[in-house]
Amino acid sequence: MQRLVYTFVSAIVFCACAQAQNLETFRQRLAAPVQIDSLHTAYDTVRVEETGDAADAVAFSSQNMKKSANGYRIVIFMSNSQNARNDAFAAKECFDSIYVTRKSYIFYENPYYKVAAGNCLSQEEAIVLLEHIKKEFPKAFVMRETITPADLVHATGAK
Fold it and tell me: What per-residue string of b and e applies to 42-68 under the rule 16 or more CB within 10 Å gives b?
């Protein structure tokens, strides 16, 4: 259920971002005649109807972007050696080159550098991801983490 809510919130945020175009300009473009060829012009009527629900949904998603949920990530690297920082960046780069669709994170929790990947909302999802990742990172393990809706939105976009 939480996954469905986060997916819905992500979709609302995406729609809100897509509204960068001026609405009046969009309406005019829709109502303008379409030139099919030099002899034919098509006139289609398009009616744009707005409801108050859309504004409420955008406001709701903005408020919920600050909330978080318990989730899981896969730790692919953890070390407190002298070269831990450089090794962490190397592990992240390696992960990012292999799993381009997954987001990875570098954490420093004194005295450890950690590289974690994924934004899993359920333990089952994390275990499935762990099995895939263990092929390249055999020491990987599941870690409990706080996941925000912003993490889920950014996980589907650019890094």
Answer: eeeeeeeeeeeeeeebeeebeebbeee
Q: Tokens representing 80?
A: 């407190």
Strands, E assignment, the chain:
34-35, 41-42, 69-79, 104-109, 112-120, 141-147
pLDDT, one tens digit per residue, over 51-62 is 666 666 556 555
Domains for the chain: give ranges and CATH numbers: 2-64 (no CATH), 69-156 (3.30.70.1070)
Q: Give me the phi and psi of 76, to 5 degrees please.
A: -100, -15
Q: CA dihedral in degrees (121, 123, 128, 134; nearest 10)?
A: 110
Helix (H, G, I), strand (E, B) or coil at 117: strand
Q: What is the mean pLDDT of residues 11-37?
A: 61
Work out whether the CA dihedral 112, 118, 120, 125 comes out positive or negative. Answer: negative
Angstrom distance (rounded) from CA 146 to CA 155: 14
